[in-house]
Specification:
Distance between the termini: 47 Å
Length: 406
């Protein structure tokens, strides 16, 4: 009887201890290796950035309120490919439609949602991170969002910011303060901005954890720039979400992060477009090649028995479906045209870098799913590209380099 009672006590204590663990949390292993744990099991994020804008609409379109519910078609396709997460850059603070979307994807297809917030970066007027009133405004928005969605079973984690660190040099979405303006040295001005911004992000993370201890808090960052400053002032950030466009490889990203800001990493935006700006035609083979190469490196740096850094938790591809409004967002007529003009240059995507003016990045062609002007039940028909099928097979059987296998 005593033995049975002892077993019962141990069992009850075990349940109580398990109950203390957040539903989604990060487990730190030896040698700064990390795993994302979801409902008690390791979880590799195989995700996509999700913004299903219909042809003829732009970023302001509230797709969560679309009566045609495009996420039901998308969710079925995602599930068939092995996708288990989507990322929203930002969603409405109190939107029952978005709650329904999140719940539908989770309950019907097992797909979880990562919710982000721009932290006012693209608002008008622009961000003023040194201003206390601006900080309070953003804090209210973020905490309202967290409060509204935190109990949804499909939530994976929160992301604060995106590429806000690109404002520190004072060129992209510039902001300043009287104190910063008094400093004559431009580099020191940038450091001051970095400390102000990252300290604000850390304060937001602390406040989020007070009301939601069940989901990690990530910081969105363009590349690894300025993370040495974040390392000084961001102890409450659980993971880094990096936006990376380095072509077919991420290079030394994983080990560099360990040396700079030792947190687990999710690639929250990366990818390759499906248009050859040099030959002026679609090239699904090259997109598939780049994406498979990127995912191979992600898997090689998961926390497993391979030789990689072990600090990667997965990624969210940019993006699920093409967005036809992106090349010229000020011209409404162009939103109904699949523009083949490239908007910027990136030599890491070498196959079409010889395009005119070396512009080879086609913003309207990043989807692993194309969309057709033809409608079915009110929705643009989805047409999976080769990358969709290549990734589906890779996720089923991730073939890595022989030297990385035990």
């Amino acid at each position: 009887t005593f033995f049975l009672l002892l077993l019962a006590i141990v069992f009850i204590i075990g349940i109580a201890e398990a109950a203390k663990k957040p539903k989604v949390y990060i487990k730190k292993l030896k040698n700064s290796r990390y795993q994302l744990i979801v409902d008690g099991k390791p979880f590799i994020i195989k995700g996509v950035c999700y913004s299903p804008i219909p042809i003829g609409q732009d970023y302001s379109y509230n797709f969560a309120a679309d009566p045609n519910q495009p996420w039901l078609v998308d969710g079925k396709l995602m599930q068939a490919a092995g996708i288990n997460a989507i990322r929203f850059y930002k969603c409405e603070k109190n939107c029952s439609n978005t709650k329904k979307l999140i719940n539908d994807l989770y309950k019907l297809y097992g797909i979880r949602t990562i919710i982000g917030h721009w932290l006012g970066f693209w608002d008008y007027p622009g961000p003023f991170y040194a201003d206390k009133d601006f900080q309070e405004k953003i804090k209210r928005e973020v905490l309202e969002t967290v409060n509204f969605y935190k109990d949804e079973p499909g939530i994976l984690f929160w992301v604060l910011g995106n590429e806000n660190n690109y404002s520190f040099a004072g060129t992209v979405q510039p902001w300043s303060s009287q104190e910063i303006d008094k400093e004559p040295d431009a580099q020191k001005q940038s450091i001051m901005r970095a400390k102000i911004y990252y300290s604000f992000v850390n304060e937001l993370a602390k406040e989020i954890k007070k009301i939601d201890p069940n989901h990690p808090v990530a910081m969105g960052n363009g590349e690894l720039r300025w993370l040495d400053i974040a390392n000084e002032v961001c102890p409450d950030i659980d993971l880094v979400g990096c936006i990376i466009y380095r072509g077919k490889t991420f290079g030394n990203l994983f080990n560099s992060l360990k040396a700079t800001f030792n947190r687990p990493l999710v690639l929250i935006e990366f990818g390759a477009d499906a248009y050859d700006a040099d030959k002026n035609k679609e090239d699904q083979n090259m997109q598939a090649f780049f994406l498979e190469s990127q995912w191979r490196q992600i898997y090689e740096n998961l926390a497993n028995e391979r030789q990689g850094a072990g600090n990667c938790l997965g990624g969210t591809i940019f993006e699920w479906a093409d967005e036809w409004w992106k090349h010229n967002e000020c011209d409404q007529a162009s939103w109904s045209v699949h523009d083949t003009s490239a908007g910027w240059s990136n030599g890491s995507y070498y196959f079409d870098i010889k395009a005119p003016e070396n512009k080879n990045m086609n913003e309207e062609w990043f989807g692993i799913v194309a969309i057709s002007p033809e409608l079915e039940n009110g929705k643009n028909i989805r047409i999976p590209r080769k990358a969709y099928y290549v990734l589906r097979e890779f996720w089923k059987n991730p073939v890595l380099k022989k030297k990385d296998k035990k």
